[in-house]
Write a structure and sequence with these properties.
The protein is an all-alpha fold. The chain contains 7 helices and no strands. The model has no long low-confidence stretch (mean pLDDT 75).
């Protein structure tokens, strides 16, 4: 029974590692996460395709993760910043410090973006997303 539990836990661990390590775009371009659509990056698609040729399941998982996270798409003139970096501008109550956000965006993107008219949209507010004609994830 104990050896059976060890084999099961080893199989679960291996499956989790394969899932995490098989998405090439997510590994190589973490700053692209959060994109909804765009032109597909041929390099990422080829690497995922190689995974698909070698092992079917990890290749499918790689494509699934990259499409879900948006890491397979080229930036195409749009800029993206990792959510962890942007989190530095949010206080404990969920309010955004616009000066800190503007500093982060200038540092990450090299652009001075005006934030005087910026609005904060809560991720769980589908009504606000619908007004802006955006779709939520999940």
């Amino acid at each position: 029974m104990n050896s059976r539990l060890k084999s099961l836990s080893a199989a679960i661990l291996c499956g989790a590692l394969i899932t995490q390590l098989s998405a090439c775009g997510t590994i190589f371009y973490p700053e692209r996460r959060g994109q909804i659509s765009g032109q597909i990056d041929p390099g990422v698609a080829i690497l995922n395709g190689i995974g698909l040729l070698i092992f079917i399941i990890p290749g499918l998982i790689a494509f699934g993760i990259d499409f879900t996270t948006g890491a397979i798409y080229l930036p195409g003139g749009k800029y993206s910043v990792a959510p962890e970096t942007l989190q530095q501008a949010v206080d404990a109550d969920g309010r955004v410090d616009t000066a800190a956000l503007q500093h982060i965006l200038k540092q990450e993107l090299g652009k001075d973006l005006p934030l005087a008219q910026a609005r904060q949209i809560k991720a769980d507010s589908t009504t606000q997303l619908a007004k802006l004609q955006l779709t939520g994830r999940g």
